[in-house]
Design brief:
This protein has 10 helices and 5 strands. The protein is of the alpha+beta class. A 5-stranded mixed sheet has the order 1-2-3-5-4, covered by helices on one side. Helix 9 links the parallel strand 1 (275-280) and strand 2 (315-322). It is rod-shaped.
Length: 386
Amino acid sequence: MPRRHLWDAAAVVAAGLFAFADTVLGIDLPRPAWSWILLVAAVLTVGVVRHVPLPALVVEATMFTISYVWVPTATASPALFGLVALTLVAYRHRWQVAAGAAAAVLALQLVVLSHSSNALLDGPGGGLRTIVLAMTAATPVILGCYLRGLREAARLATERADDAEHRRRAEAGHARLAERARIAGDLHDIVAHHVSAIALQAGSGHYAATQAADRDQRLDEAVLALSTIRDDAIQTLSELRALLRVLRDPLDNDAADPETMIVEAVRRTRSAGLHVEAKIDEGTAGTTPVVRMAAARAVQEALTNALKHAGPGADVLAVVRVDDACVRVDVTDSGAVGNRPSLPSSGHGLAGMRERVDELGGTLAAGPTPYGGWRLAVSLPLGVPT
């Protein structure tokens, strides 16, 4: 048997026991046989009161009326069951419906009692009984409305908890996406710069090994290119390990030093054949780590673009300075001197850098110069929190 039917059966059993006790143990007066049919109907109606409280109230009110009008010795069970039904009416329906039902019950009681032979509503005592009847009809309504309020409060609390959980999951998802984007940007900054330098060194070594004037020069140029490629590969692995350490433990402070990153980026760009002049303001060391790292990534990205699009022989000026409000990064190259190097573009460098700068409240401008080169200008506010 389903659980809801068990509750209904238990309600019928409890109502039956109450009606039996009220009838058998009450005043021992003769009752007509058909009054028992009314009592059984009132008891069985309790089994459906949870599902259809308003029709159940009508049935119980009918049993009450018949009992008091035609069976003077009837029990009070239908009246009690009617109050239970009224409570559930107030619990299931709007307060206007509950108030109307309570008024109807009170009016029915007054009509029934006013036609009784005992003159229960006459005199001062009748007024007091009327007040008691009104309170009797109002109490189930108040209880039902209170229980409905508790149910609504529980429902709203559940909805708020569900909404909070949905927001938490959405925020966690956005945080994961932001972290993935940050990791992708760091990987791009590391891999793109180093691999570009390695590709240029490999091209220079290949050219020297095949085009140099004599065998010894070709061998020396090839060995120098391979040595530089080895150094760049080792540096790449070192920076990737540092990034992985930070990913495993965000509190690990053993990450790449921004000033060292700039120095190494300048060295690799020079070894690839570009003429780089770097002017780094010593005041950058006093700025926050977040700003220093963003400035270093900006220089690295600008030098990577110079490697890709200007190539060997180009002049590059990289300036990092601090003023009263900002750290400013300005990197300008002269453009390709000979044939442009055929290095692929990732398409994410400047976009990722722009997102990083925007998160810090800074500005980024990039575009060609009037002399055929390219310029990257970044401004980072000093007030960025660590």
